[in-house]
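Troubleshooting: if your tokenizer reports a length mismatch, compare your output against this known-good record of 145 residues.
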Amino acid sequence: MKTHIATPKEINETHAFHLIDAEDVVLGRLASAVAFLLRGKHKPIFTPFLDTGDHVIIVNADKVRLTGQKLDKKMMRHHTLYPGGLREKTYRKAMEDKPELVIKKAVWGMLPKNRLGRKLLKKLRVYSGPNHPHQSAQPSPYEIK
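Known-good structure output:
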């Protein structure tokens, strides 16, 4: 079996923009679908070590859904790298403060933790309201099942 490695010309020809409405979509399912699009796994030219994915625009991030009691019991944690610098807050508080960050963190958890993953994450744009400044890119709507 011969392995296909995508050429730069093939990659540039297939880049597209997808618009996802996150209203009433479960966070994990949303993150999984977005990571799939960012990696380019939906394309026949997918190559694991190259950026063959598409750009993704997410609107209505403040209306994403968490199941069960995750809003009140699940904690979002980060460390300031100073002694005693562990900061944590519930997902309800995080959704009130920065709903974009909640989605970005969920998607980052499903991408590779290397240079490629950081490059892919830059192709994700998240907005808390229904408006976005990328109308000129003519994003195609993407429905999450």
